[in-house]
Amino acid sequence: MSLAGEVQGAISSVPGFDCDTALSADLARQFFAQGYKFCLRYLPKRQVSSQDLTLQEVTDILTSGLALMPVQHGPKQGWFADRALGQEQGREASANAKTIGFPDGVNLWCDVEGVNRSAQAQDVLDYCEAWYEAVSAAGYTPGMYVGAGTLLNGRQIYDLPFRHYWRSQSQVPDIPHRGYQLIQLRPSVEINGVWVDLDVALNDSQGGAARWLRMNPRLRADDGQL
């Protein structure tokens, strides 16, 4: 079953956040009441954590009024990239998103950071392309979180098949001809007892926007509007 929501282009200049902490219904409502309009939360991996995204949490987030996008945890610091790993993790991310009920078209984000310094840029490119192919084949819109230590320059990132990019708070390259659709701000802050990274949604230089899932206000408990 798909979640009760609509995949939409993100509204430019609105504030949001990402966090690695599960949000209760009360917390989600608090963030929305404070003016935040979207959030990004992490899908489970093989070793499921109590902080991973669940169907109940997704329902609570959407009902609060927040829009939502899922992101896959990146590999551990110092990892080695290759095409086989990209394919495996892209399929895993897609399967987990399907299990929760995310509909086709929503951005599913690939966390690319902390690659082993002895790795080759081409290995990272192969990983990203394979991840993109797996997620796209599953019906989702692949997005790339560009973190520290990708080993890629802006031109190499632009030449990837991705059309949705999220800039981390680290020092990362600009993407020529396109730019970013999500900007993560620094530093991390504690809000409502939860450590979060603040983000801003923007249209990129080609008019592209992130694709989030948002519940129709008529289906929510409140009548708040973006």
Features:
single chain; 11 strands; 226 residues; two-stranded antiparallel sheet; 26% helix; globular; 5 helices; alpha/beta; 8-stranded mixed β-barrel
Polypeptide structure, described:
With 226 residues, the chain is an alpha/beta fold. 26% of the residues lie in helices and 23% in strands. It has helices at 25-33, 55-64, 83-100, 121-137, 154-158; strands at 6-9, 15-18, 38-43, 67-72, 107-112, 141-146, 165-167, 182-184, 189-191, 194-201, 211-214. The strands form two sheets. Strands 2-3-4-5-6-7-8-10 form an eight-stranded mixed β-barrel. A two-stranded antiparallel ribbon has the order 1-11. Helix 1 (25-33) runs parallel beside helix 2. The longest helix has 18 residues, at 83-100.
What is the topology?
Elements: E1 6-9, E2 15-18, H1 25-33, E3 38-43, H2 55-64, E4 67-72, H3 83-100, E5 107-112, H4 121-137, E6 141-146, H5 154-158, E7 165-167, E8 182-184, E9 189-191, E10 194-201, E11 211-214
Parallel strand pairs: 2-3, 3-4, 4-5, 5-6, 6-7, 7-8
Antiparallel strand pairs: 1-11, 2-10, 8-10, 9-10
Helix pairs in contact: 1-2, 3-4
With helices defined by DSSP (H or I, 4 residues minimum), what is the helix count? 5
* Gyration radius, in Å: 16 Å
Poorly predicted ranges: none
The rounded distance between the terminal residues' Cα atoms is 26 Å
**What portion of residues is helical?**
25-40%
Adjacency order of strands in the biggest sheet: 2-3-4-5-6-7-8-10
Structural class: alpha/beta
Largest sheet descriptor: 8 strands, mixed, barrel
Strand content of the residues, in percent? 15-25%
Shape type: globular
Helix and strand sequence: EEHEHEHEHEHEEEEE
The mean pLDDT is 94
Strand tally is 11
